[in-house]
Structure formats: structure tokens, C-alpha cells
Amino acid sequence: MEDDQALRVYEQYLTEYPEPIETALEIRFKVSSAYKDRGSEEAYLDQLQAIVDIDREAGSARTDRTRYLAATSSLVLTRPLYHQFEILELVQPFEDSLAEKKRLMEVALGGFDALVSYEVAEVTAAATYYMAEIYGHFSDALVASERPTGLSEAELSAYELVIEEEAFPFEEQSIAVHQKNLELMRVDVFNEWVQRSIGKLAVLMPGRYAKFEISSGFVGSIDHYAYRSPGAPEFTLPITPDTEITHRSEPPEDQLPALSLAGGDDVDTSY
After folding, report:
1. Which of 62, 106, 221, 257 could cross-link with 58 by S-S, CB 3.0 to 4.6 Å?
2. Residue 246, pLDDT above cutoff 50
3. pLDDT per residue over 93-144, tens digit each?
4. Residues 97 and 161 in one domain
5. What is the distance between the alpha carbons of residues 145 and 271, in angstroms, rounded to a whole number?
6. Would you say residue 234 lies in a domain?
7. 86 plus 165 within the same structural domain
8. Domain limits at 155?
């Protein structure tokens, strides 16, 4: 009951005092967390989107703190793009499902790529992790794709070979992007997303990373760096029964009521 009253006071405050922007976004951030705690998903996401929009239009009023709040909010808002891409299976007719899978892939890559411009280490590491997972999942999806009917044993064997050749460059790209996350440690950034990338690399390249040990450390922001490779692999449609097989090698808030928040100021951005 007290939390309900506190929430109403905070929302009224935001309506009457939209400035200073940093204070307003701090309060809006708490409001978003309160909505999340009570299971009001739509209101939670609406508040996060408002934080992103206000920070983007803040101009000279933008601060490191507003940028951080917007970056973490934007990460939560972007994360569903990965899940939309991930759940789509490659089934027959293959060309149709592949075209949609590639479209969702590009949308997801673009969404996470945009997060890097915030120059917030935690969010950059998360975006990098998701980018790597997109490439890795696409490789796995190709290997697990539904096979066409009507192929002879020899044709099916050749089809399997082509699929594996097409999938391999995406696995390599996934490794390369996960390794990009490890570069953050050179500027003393180590967080759960870097650790997750290490875990993935330990599976993909156990000989090199399975016994990888590292001490922890973290800084709040880093210089901008690009991690989306301009040379990302392209995919060529695999064979049909009529295709000739050719082998390729490519690899203020003091006067406001307290609002009890279980998660403090953190937004849940876990995978």
C-alpha cells in the first residue's frame, strides 16, 4: 500500500518536474523497477523506452549517468530481437524460412550494434556477447535445418557437406566476436558478459580457453570500439536435387517517499 502511494507520488513528480533531466531519469528508473517487481511488464517497458527517448533528446543536459540509464534500458528493450531470431527454425520450404531467418538476424545485429554507441562497458560487453551468439546460433540452425525430401543417399550426403561448409564461417565469426569481448579486459573491464564469452570460448575452443583464468576488475565506461565485422560471412543457398555440387572453402529525491525496490538500481539484463 505504501509502495502504491510512493509510486503515485513519483509519477506525479515526473509530470510536474521533468527537469533536471538526470534527476527525472533516476526517478523514472526507480519507477520502471517498481513496475517490473509487480509484474506490470508493459508499464515497465514503457518507462524504459521513455528513459531512452528522453536521454536521446537531452542535448547538453545529457550526462554520463543519463547515458548509463539509457544504455541499460536500451539493452533490455533490444534483447527480444535476439529471442525472435533464435526461435525461428529453418524448415522447408528452406528458401522461405532462410530469408526470414536472415532478416531477423540483420535486425538483431543492427539493434545490438547500436548499443555500442552509448560507450558503457557493461552494455558494450552484453551487446558483444549477443552478437557472437547470433552468429553461433545461425551456424547451429543451419546444421539442424530440415532436410529436403526426394534426395538420394548420395545427394543427401553432398547436401550435408554443403550445409556444414556454409555453417562453418558463422561459427568462426562467433568465436571472433566472443574474443572481441576478451579485449575489454585490456582496459580493466571484467563482468558477467565477458565471463560468459569466456565460457562459450571454452566450449568452442577448449584447447585454448578451457583453463583460462582471470582476475576480476571493472571500469564503468570505455572508449567506443566496433565489434561487428564488415567481413561477416555471406550465406549461399544449399543444394536442391538439381544442383551441381561444387566445393568451396571460406572459412533529488530527498523529499520524495521511499520506494522499496528489491533490485535496487539494477535492471535485469541477464540472458
Report:
1. 62
2. no
3. 999 999 999 999 999 999 999 999 999 999 999 999 999 999 999 999 999 9
4. yes
5. 24
6. no
7. yes
8. 78-223
